[in-house]
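Q: Could you write out the predicted structure for this multi-component system? I'm mainly interested in how the pieces pack against one another.
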Amino acid sequence: MISDIEIEVLRLSLKIAGWAVLCSLPFAIGISFLLSRRQFPGRFVLDGIVHLPLVIPPVAVGYILLLVLGRQGLVGSWLYEVFGVTLVFSWQGAAVAAAVMAFPLMVRAIRLSLDSVDQKIEAAAQTLGASPLRVFLTITLPLITPGILTGTVLAFARALGEFGATITFVSNIAGETRTLPIALYTLLQAPGSEDAALRIVGISIALALLALLASELLARRVARRLTGEPS
Amino acid sequence: MTHLSVDIQKHVGELQITAEFESDVGGITALHGRSGAGKTSIVNMIAGLDTPDSGRITLGGQVLFDSDKGINLPPHLRRIGYVFQEDRLFPHLTVRRNLLYGASRASHSDTVLNFDDVVDMLGIASLLDRQPHHLSGGEKQRVAIGRALLSGPEILLMDEPLVNLDMERRGEILPFIEKLRDATGIPVLYVSHATEEIIRLADIVVMISEGKSVAVGPVEDVMSRLDLRPLTGRYEAGAVLNVRVGEYNLDDGLSSLNFAGGALLVPQVDAPIGHDLRVRVRARDVSIALTPPHGISILNVFPGKILDMAETGTAQMDVLIDIALPGGIEPCPLWARITRRSATELKLETGLVVHALIKAVAIDRHSLGQ
């Protein structure tokens, strides 16, 4: 029903998107907190940089990644010399590209939910003797769980569909960087593969629907826990 | 006794806040003044949620804020419980976990209250496993009070804790505040613009007007002062009498309250005989007669001498009468609000002996303070 190659592509896509989301989540929460709660010089610049991948062509993002993280790049050469890590042409590189592209969506969702947290409640926690860290962990974090969930699902979906930056940065290598959209693109390049391409489209749609369903169920559970009200 | 000393200045928008007062009573100190007078800003600065431009705040020998020495303790290191206008309960925690949120600080504190005692006192035992979402406004505010008490505070700040509740709910909370003052011994700084709450709860009143503390003193003094009349509120203006509950007449349901001017008859008072109470007698509930009246429904008639008179409107004036019994050491001032025409027709003047008439039914439970 589903071929080995399709399973391989699916697993690779899930792995890349999963790692991309997992590793960027702590940074997304940190930067959302900075943008939502702190006034500091360069806040607008940070805001702009975070949102850049949303507005410039993905291929350009891929090219910038190549310049910075490539073997000759500023950070890339350092990574290679110190850790022996090469991101180019590897699935880790694909995860980095997916993370960068999905990052703004994640930050937007989390920041929106941080903005909506009543800071008076956090102040109340402080007057009860809670340090700022404890307030964040026990009050703020639980209250923004819905936003974190939304951001994670959005980012995961975006990472699954990532194409331009990925193919520019880590190319199209079967079993290493050939994710669902890149596999679809490859099939469309070869004549007579319309059926196989359609199957990939089907898998992508099924995956997206599953992710949405899972997030909806989770969000309901969280909402119930937060308000005690079935929603 | 926990001594609180406040001397702070801050610009808040148009308002220049200059608050200076001390409180070392164990009871309830009230910050009283109109809405927008800067009361909330002052308590926020005491709690550390807001920073004064300059000044000094100390609590029980500890310096919380000192602009000269650069000291500004963050809120979580100040041992101050805070009950806000809104309940500010944590929506994701059960009532029990809300109540226990400050318990870790309380465990290092001298003022440890027993969890069950507080829960019983506030009548919230049946709510412990519920989410705040499911509570009524009055219940939420009771939980908020309990949460603040259980965090081991040296002083409790209450910023208009009743303002967002309807009349019925207010009546539900007030007894708990009286109870906590009597049962816990934790001093309370109570913010309110409602004269009724001040009379009922406060021992010491700090009058706040346009950001400044303009008067500090025992509630019966401050609330009876004519010069503060524009601040205490015209409608509610009146005298505060210290009374002791006397006998209760079963036949007609009247209690007699003994004070320096004699015995005041009022509808049944819900307090044991011998209990000391404060009674507010509003100026507009007091009439004046030149001779002891006959054939009149009013039960309370007190002879007294006019001490002062002041116009309080185009048509009315307030008359201050000393109704202390002959041989009394201290004066017992009572305010009467009458029309200017009456004052003219009766030829009222300072020094004249008159009779002050008070309707018994004008004194209801809202007029009483413990």
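A: Regarding packing and overall arrangement: Chain B touches chain A at residues 47-49, 74-76, 78-82, 84, 86, 88, 90-92, 101-102, 104-106, 130-131, 133-134, 147-148, 151-152 (CB under 8 Å).
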